[in-house]
Write a structure and sequence with these properties.
Layout lengths: L1 H24 L8 H11 L1 E4 L1 H9 L4 H9 L3 E2 L13 E6 L6 E7 L3 E9 L2
Parallel strand pairs: 1-5
Antiparallel strand pairs: 2-3, 3-4, 4-5
Length: 123
């Protein structure tokens, strides 16, 4: 019982210390999930738009800022329809928003750039 007491006396302040240090640095565990990793990597690369994608952006009145800040950041990757293991550039299907998707984006994520191929309005 005495060992357990000492264990908790050290555990509680240690957890609080780690929590405040990681919280101050903005660390979070959400970036480790596959969906979050693919989106973060895509946003960090140079974005290239195919002519069909650019044309559909004009038709839907979507600018690059809305694409990055809303569609890509708040979307979910459909891994069932994506080819994540394809070499050299994996292909992904992105659905925005997650529930009742309105847009479907097909893109390739290569080493230096992300190429956006198609943008489809679903409803």
């Amino acid at each position: 019982m005495r060992k357990l007491k000492f264990f908790f006396i050290g555990l509680v302040p240690g957890l609080l210390l780690v929590f405040f240090i990681l919280n101050k640095k903005g660390a979070s565990c959400s970036g480790y999930l596959p969906n979050s990793r693919v989106i973060a990597e895509t946003l960090s690369k140079k974005m290239v738009y195919s002519p069909a994608f650019s044309q559909e952006m004009e038709v839907e009145k979507i600018d690059e800022k809305f694409l990055k800040d809303s569609i890509i950041k708040n979307a979910t990757i459909d891994f069932d329809r994506s080819q994540a293991q394809k070499k050299p550039c994996p292909e992904y299907v992105l659905l925005y928003p997650e529930k009742n998707p309105r847009y479907e984006v097909h893109f390739q994520k290569c080493k230096d750039e992300a190429t956006f191929n198609t943008l489809k309005k679903l409803r």
